[in-house]
Amino acid sequence: MRVLGALAALALVTGLGATAAQAEDFPARTVTVIVPFAAGGPADITGRIAADIFARHLGQSFVVENVGGAGGTVGSLRAARARADGYTLISGHMGTHAAAPMFYPNLGYDPEKDFEPVGLIATQPELLVVRKDFPANNLKEFAEYAKKNEGKLNMGHAGVGSVSYLGCLLLNSAIGIHPTLVPFTGTAPVMNAILAGNVDYDCDPVLGPLSHVRAGTAKALAIATKKRTPLLPDVPTSYEQGFPQFDCAPFYAIFAPKGTPKAVIDKLAAALAKGLDEPAVQKRFADLGAVIAEPSERGPDALAKRVHDEITRLKPIVAAARAKQ
User: Fold this and answer.
1) For 24-62, what is each residue's pLDDT tens digit?
2) Rounded to an integer, what distance in angstroms lies between the CA atom of residue 279 and that of residue 271?
């Protein structure tokens, strides 16, 4: 028995040593960063910036894989079920890692229990964007038109539970309308549909429609925060226009599967934090309308708290809004 006990102890020590060595050598090969939406949208752009940060600071390739579907939950589920060794990460956000359980009772993953938080990247206020020939030029006019033409109004979104769906759910509830909801695999395809005139409106983080709004191929009627964005200073806030219920600034962050070694998580978190301090990265996010995470908001513990707080905040809001649908 003593021999068996000694062997067991040796195996445990050896296993711990192997884990420590793997964490020390991490990353020894290419890392996959899952973006649970189509290429070109805010989640994709943010995820690619993070992947570039990791690659530069950790000296290994970080490859983005777009896995869209069901409001980002298809890719999130794949990430949750991946091997917990640090070689599969996910660029998630408020939709996939806070709101999704409220929309998908059989989700297959728990944002708080099935992931290791790595770090917050940025927050991104949403815009109400309409096709360029939409007969409204501000939120009040939009609400008046929407109420009179509810039956022929089309709203695009990136899947039930996505941030675009959530933002417009808050907007629709505030106005009291029930438009036709048109799902896509990401906000970039939604934007293409708006440009083509096939969809009337969507609620999209600033960096998605920014270039189109500036070019005049789409119109932004409101930004869903208390403060205007310097990128579109002429676009008034939802608060200014009398619709404070339309308040949505999703967070974007990196997560790993539950059980990923702490040393690996810490190495990833440190690399991300260094990257976010780089002037070039900060300028890139500022140019995209994102609010980069402050040092106190970064790291695994701060992200875990943000996820918990957002779930707590959103539950009653979503329940009330969906009850009116």
Assistant:
1) 799 999 999 999 998 988 889 999 999 999 999 999 999
2) 15
